[in-house]
Amino acid sequence: MPSPAVSIYRTYLRQIRQLPHLYLRQFFRARAEYDVRRVSEILSVPLFNKNLKRISKDIRKLQDAVRGDTNAFAHILNIAYGRKGKLWWELMQPLINNSKGHLPPLIISSVERSRPPVYSPELTALVTSAYSRTTTKPLNPRALQSPPTLPSQACADTQDAQLLGALSKRREVNIRWRYFSQQCKKVLPPLEITTAKQTNEMGIHIALHNFGFHNAGVTEGIQHLVGQYCLLPTPTRKQRTMEVSSPDPGPNPDPDINLPRKHPSRWIRRRYQTLLQHIPIMEYTSDGKFSVELSPSGHVALHSGSHLRLPGIDRVSSKWYSTSVDPSHEVVVLN
Description:
By secondary structure, the protein is mainly α. Helix content is 47%, strand content 3%. The radius of gyration is 25 Å and the shape is flat.
């Protein structure tokens, strides 16, 4: 008679085979093998039953996702693509620990652990962008140097410091590190960091190539599954007229040429569209900075602050605005 671990592993695999995407099947197959192997090595019966119960909970979540439960499917997507869970932490570690260069001065003399946290250039770009945070409000760059939770007593020149005395150095260290940890937990890390074609810095190339899913095609796989043009509605008469009269139709007027077929299920595409709005695309530009953008194929939920995640205006609408709006008004094209 098979052991409980073997039986639950078979049940795990049966649910994994029904997942709609190859990456999901590969990810959860590796996770199931790791979880069951680790549980099989536990000798304590109470601890064995506790871990087995946790795996059973994960299997039930997979069953709900396969049956079409929206929340369950969103949960397994967030787990598989590092929006939460262990993979999120593994993607964040290089960003948090990438504090190369000179170390900041000690806040408490002769105490090495009293150095304030350092925001790497990649982490700075993520926390100051609305596209890479769980909240739509980006962080003010000034807050990286002086957290808003730090009392004014920390500065010796303020009136509070003169009346109440200087702030405890140990308290200042704790406040800075607590704020740093809170902001890191709100970051949505990218799956990879691309480089501009004009970039020739070898050291940067080596560091970025070791991050995340570099050249694995994970983000491109999601975009192909969703369909690059699935968000565009049927062109109106005005748009069709503009496209016909436009002198520059573009190098490829047919968007469906040479593109992989999108997933046939609209429900699946919508789930991945929502996921794309939580996967920032980071690029190391030729001027030595990091830019953060979102895929235009993503789905934007309508809520307060959602305008910060909306894609830029398309070419047809830009031309229509330029011909219909007062010429004295400036039209800003985001794309």
